[in-house]
Amino acid sequence: MKVLVPVKRVIDYQVKVRVKPDQTGVDLANVKMSMNPFCEIAVEEAVRLKEKNAATEIVVVSIGPQAAQETLRTALAMGADRGIHIVTDDIVEPLAVAKLLKGVVEAEQPGLVILGKQAIDDDSNQTGQMLAALLGWPQATFASKVELAPDAATVTREVDGGLQTLRLALPAIVTTDLRLNEPRYASLPNIMKAKKKEIAAKAPADFGVSTAPRLKVVKVTEPPKRQAGIKVKSVQELVDKLKNEAGVL
Amino acid sequence: MPLDAETRPIFLDTLRRFVAETLIPLERQVAETDEVPEAVWAQMRELGLFGLTVPEAHGGMGLCMEDEVRAVFELARASPAFRSVVGTNLGIGSQGLVMFGTPLQQARWLSGIASGAIVTAFALTEAEAGSDSAAVTTRARREGAGWVLNGAKRYITNADRAHLFTVMARTGEAPGARGISAFLVPAGLPGLQIGPPERKMGQQGAHICEVWFDDVLVPDDALLGAEGAGFRVAMATLEKGRLHIAALCVGAASRILEEAVAWARTRIQFGRPIIEHQLVAGMLAESQAELLAGRAMVLEAARARDAGAPIPLEASAAKLFCSEMVGRVADRAVQVFGGAGYVADTGIERWYRDVRIFRIYEGTSEIQKLVIARELARAPQPSFNS
């Protein structure tokens, strides 16, 4: 079975994000970028499926600027077989991403698409769901466990208040949660070997998709600074404040 | 072979992440238990770290010197005990074989060294042969189709983990360096005994032990390089080894300085962060400038070596400067941290102890000065680099 894994290049999770002075977005100049951590989990899951012989080929796809090729190389070094790079300098919104991925799915015919549940830059949490809708495929989001049979997937999901287990007919869409697995470090020899794997370059127009934005960012601001707390002298004073000032008792 | 522009950042990024996410959180545990956990050895094997300098044909990565020092810059951001795990395999443990091994010897050992299945140790130093390393008294005498080794080595890194020792022993009557040969001695041979790990000032987790040879019989093909050429084997790997240590100093200094800067930006005294107090700021600025100077020295020497130039002077100069530099950087870091730097919790005093050895091993600072001066005395013109 072929598995398709979309991966996104985002601001590195360790970077302290700074908002641009004009509040139009986040300052990305000279900032370290890397693969979205949820996408890494998706790649890892696909590689494990292949190691268990449940998957035969892993195709990774990324939509973004030339530099996104590095993200694809990282995925190839982790164990993916080949890459597709849809090159664009635009900021591509989830719906356009889903439409592009639909094009890739139609061309590649995978039995399973595994995506991160969200990207840590815009936290949209939409692409997987939109892709499932566009394809008319079943979906299991926020997966913490994936088991694959030839014609069905059993997916455990993390939901409020516990775990839910779904059985999906394949082909299907799975989005990964944090606890699905712990991604491996690409081994250094595999990083070198990844260089020889194929990455096909495409453009959004190849899929007849417009990446023109439909949303307008009005303003980006930092979260408000936390106010300093107060110290109370006695339990009585605390209870009094909780009752009369905070109104929580 | 140098890594290409696309591969190198992925390689260094992966290494940096491994160091930050896996090694640095374990530093304190390793220092307290004097043991690098087995799981870390396994991860380092999986990552391919043992084989960075082994040629690709033998399962390694065959990194050029520049890539090697860049990798060491990253690896050395964690306690030096971690680097010690792979250190000898990257240096003489593999390079002696690469340069002087017969095809048979290479085929037998190199792929295991590259994968980390075989851990190597280098046994040169003796009680009376330290800086005067040609004063080796361990002897190998011919017996039948083999050699019999007798003697004692000391301060041998990884001796208690090693599968293979490169042993320097006297084979002829020729005095000094000319009478010394190199031998590949597998661990576990009858008569080969390893002492308990020494208690040391720093770098807990990295073990050094005494090694005794009591009528240890090795076959003829244990001889590495020609008879009497042992010292050439050792010296040939020295340039590389010294640059490697210099890079180690640079990596350690960058981590120590980072810690000091982070502290100075948040520690408030007299109503403001201490980095805004000029005397503290001055210490940090000096450390940063020296760190950059050392880094530049290492990179330039590495590139020159990759271009085929002999660099005995440059390697010694880089080793001398960088090992002294990291000592100053660590000393200032303790000063910036103040009392908190002297207390073990922040890890700064540990770094201060850990980096002290860099001025001693792989040639003391004094020996480096002699090497530099010797090169100056015999060079056709002063080496100011064209």
SSE topology sketch:
The complex is a heterodimer of chains A (249) and B (386).
Chain A (H helix, E strand, L loop, with lengths): L1 E5 L2 E3 L21 E3 L1 H15 L5 E8 L3 H11 L3 E6 L6 H15 L3 E5 L10 H9 L3 E10 L3 E8 L2 E8 L2 E5 L11 H7 L4 E4 L32 H12 L3
Helix pairs in contact in A: 2-5, 3-4
Chain B lengths: L6 H17 L3 H7 L4 H10 L17 H11 L4 H11 L1 H9 L2 H13 L4 E4 L15 E5 L2 E12 L6 E7 L9 E7 L5 E3 L13 E12 L3 E2 L5 H7 L1 H29 L1 E2 L2 E2 L4 H29 L5 H26 L1 H4 L5 H7 L10 H14 L8
Parallel strand pairs in B: 1-4
Antiparallel strand pairs in B: 2-3, 3-7, 4-5, 5-8, 6-7, 9-10
Helix pairs in contact in B: 1-4, 4-9, 4-10, 6-7, 9-10, 9-11, 10-11, 11-13, 11-14
State the gist of this model.
With 249 residues, chain A is an alpha/beta fold.
Can you walk me through this structure?
The complex is a heterodimer of chains A (249) and B (386). By secondary structure, chain A is an alpha/beta fold. Helices cover 28% and strands 26% of the residues of chain A. Chain A is built from 6 helices and 11 strands. Chain A has helices at residues 37-51, 68-78, 94-108, 127-135, 188-194, 235-246, and strands at 2-6, 9-11, 33-35, 57-64, 82-87, 112-116, 139-148, 152-159, 162-169, 172-176, 199-202. In chain A, helix 2 (68-78) crosses helix 5. Chain A is globular. The mean pLDDT of chain A is 94. Chain B is an alpha+beta fold. Chain B folds into 3 domains: 7-115, Orthogonal Bundle (Butyryl-Coa Dehydrogenase, subunit A, domain 1), CATH 1.10.540; 120-226, Beta Barrel (Butyryl-CoA Dehydrogenase, subunit A, domain 2), CATH 2.40.110; 232-378, Butyryl-CoA Dehydrogenase, subunit A, domain 3. Helix content of chain B is 50%, strand content 15%. In chain B, the strands form 3 sheets. In chain B, strands 1-4-5-8 form a 4-stranded mixed beta sheet. Chain B has a 4-stranded antiparallel beta sheet with strand order 2-3-7-6, with no helix packed on it. In chain B, a hairpin with a 2-residue loop joins strand 9 and strand 10 (272-273). The longest helix of chain B has 29 residues, at 238-266. Chain B starts with 6 loop residues before the first helix and ends in an 8-residue tail after the last helix.
